[in-house]
Backbone:
């Protein structure tokens, strides 16, 4: 059963990547806030289900205890949503998914945890892949960039911000993982997850007030529906992940951690994104490191 749950998590999270990208229009400066609205609504509904139907216990104290962790995760996701307006999903997803390597490094430096030689090698691979992706992206010839992007009918300008945003996601998400490892010594996982979802709901309401009430921006089903599909996939993936890792962590983690491979595949099939061989080489190096680290999760 764990295998199918892991596959569901992989497909859901890669699907969330795909629809988040579809919903992140370059001309919509509030697309990231609308994503927060969508994810907040869906996660809020799931939190309500957990509290009322399942009976997951949560107090205001639990909510406040987990709030710093929730904020780190949500800030990182929001930055990731902004980044999708400026860069291909094929590049963004592997960089964002490298946060596990940064978290492992953080555990080694700040928490005194030890890594095996293979884990150290995996972290090195991920770092090489991420730095390499940034280098390839910034050094790519302008004419070659325009030629390969013409297939997707989308043009992204070369900018430091485009590569910086997914890297910031990676670092802040890793900080969330570090904080998570400390806070989960006080809270059980289900309570922590509900606290996280309620925080997302609150920020989603704040985003709605800003975008719709203050800025008076009209929302349309056609334009915003991909965001809600992404939100459903994100929440379903989180649900499947918890049970898959709970059933067989050592086997499920490597499967789930490679979801960025599926994200790259979907971006090639559905978004018509096409990268250079140098891009793909760096992505492969990243993914190998991520899967090795996932094995030790």
Residues:
């Amino acid at each position: 059963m764990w295998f199918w749950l892991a596959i569901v998590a992989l497909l859901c999270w890669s699907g969330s990547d795909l629809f988040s990208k579809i919903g992140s229009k370059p001309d919509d400066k509030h697309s990231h806030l609308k994503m927060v609205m969508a994810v907040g609504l869906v996660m809020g509904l799931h939190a309500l289900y957990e509290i009322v139907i399942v009976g997951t216990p949560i107090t205001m104290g639990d909510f406040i205890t987990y709030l710093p962790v929730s904020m780190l995760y949500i800030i990182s996701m929001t930055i990731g949503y902004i980044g999708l307006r400026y860069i291909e999903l094929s590049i963004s997803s592997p960089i964002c998914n490298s946060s596990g390597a940064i978290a492992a490094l953080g555990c080694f430096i700040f928490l005194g945890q030890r890594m095996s030689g293979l884990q150290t090698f995996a972290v090195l691979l991920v770092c090489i892949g991420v730095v390499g992706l940034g280098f390839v992206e910034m050094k790519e010839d302008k004419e070659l960039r325009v030629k390969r992007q013409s297939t997707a009918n989308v043009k992204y300008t070369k900018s430091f911000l485009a590569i910086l945003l997914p890297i910031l996601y990676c670092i802040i998400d890793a900080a969330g993982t570090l904080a998570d490892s400390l806070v989960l010594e006080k809270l059980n996982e289900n309570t922590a997850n509900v606290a996280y979802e309620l925080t997302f709901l609150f920020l989603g309401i704040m985003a709605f007030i800003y975008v719709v009430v203050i800025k008076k921006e009209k929302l349309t089903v056609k334009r915003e529906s991909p965001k809600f599909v992404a939100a459903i996939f994100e929440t379903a993936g989180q649900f499947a992940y918890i049970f898959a890792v709970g059933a067989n962590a050592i086997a499920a983690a490597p499967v789930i951690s490679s979801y960025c491979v599926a994200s790259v595949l979907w971006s090639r099939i559905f978004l018509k994104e096409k990268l250079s061989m140098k891009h793909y080489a760096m992505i492969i190096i990243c993914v190998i490191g991520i899967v090795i680290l996932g094995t030790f999760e």
The chain has one domain: 2-14+29-295. The mean pLDDT is 88.
